Amino acid sequence: MKCYSYADGTFEAVYEIKRSKFIATVCGEVDADSAEEFVKSVKKKYADATHNCYAYISDINGQATRFSDDGEPGGTAGQPILQVLRKKGLVRTAVVVTRYFGGIKLGAGGLVGAYTESAVLGIEGAKISTKTKCSQITISIDYPLYSSIEKLIWRNNWILDGTDFLDGVAVRIWVKEDEVDSALALIKETTLGKASCVVSSEAQFIKA
User: Fold this and answer.
1) 136 has which bridge partners?
2) pTM
């Protein structure tokens, strides 16, 4: 897994059909525990609703999933919401679709369509971000080389994590895991081999 996409924050969208009102609430960067807490918070917020159906994917590989029809006919709510998450390619994201029944039955097909459309609207209204697996490189240089390294970071869209100015300059950057070797070569070329580089032993997922 080199990268993953998720809903970056909490978002809400409303969909109405045949007097029934559906409110999709989307929350991202969740794990199993925080997803459950999110579901509980939405249920509490809309405690007077007819149904609070949900689905979430709580791991970056898309394997840890959970869904609920919350009293709707089996397979008409939770699974359709989960399928929307999968089709949109999102993980570590939860969606709760709240329904206020308007008095007109939608039938199984109508429910699937309504919960699907609600989830789609919620996700389309969300900010989607991507995190990429990166390694941290600490570059140690003398002061005269600092401006050259600054320009190199900017040109290559590396992520600056911090700079320490002491006897020399220590610059910490995040580079995509599969671009580390090329980054080290560029740094060596730019500084004529005068930079000292240390690569972190553990890669992390970083928002670019």
Assistant:
1) 174
2) 0.88
